[in-house]
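*Target chain*
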Amino acid sequence: MPESTRGKVRLPPRWFIRLFWLVHRRLYRWTGARLGLWRPRPGGWGTMHLTTVGRRTGRSRSAIIGDFEDGLNLVALAMNGWGDAEPARRLNLQAHPEVTAELGDGRAVHVELDGLEPAAGHRSGHRGEGLRPERAEDLPHLVLRAGEGDHRV
């Protein structure tokens, strides 16, 4: 879309975003992980349930985050739900790079942080379109590589 015709994305109030997250997580738990996750569609994004280790507490931390595929890698935007704060999962991944990701097809795979790449330079071409265009260029990508024996299909 030409730059002149693209309008600024209007986000719902922060309280609504947080309420949606709460309902989404509860739906995921109440249905035994049958609802709430989906595989990325071609040219689009999906969701995964990422479990990291807290960098300060050492406790398990989980979040449902958006992802897209880049070959065998999973890629997620390092964003905090359209908020300005640094996402804790990015800092946790840097401290403890080996984590578990539950995917939309029901599989749990062991993944490792392969790196952080600027959105503008990521080879997948996905730059956060539709998420928050005015910040998409600033959001780095978390690149997660499947562990030994875990292969994406």
User: Anything to note?
Assistant: The chain has three helices and six strands. The first strand starts at residue 46 and ends at 53.
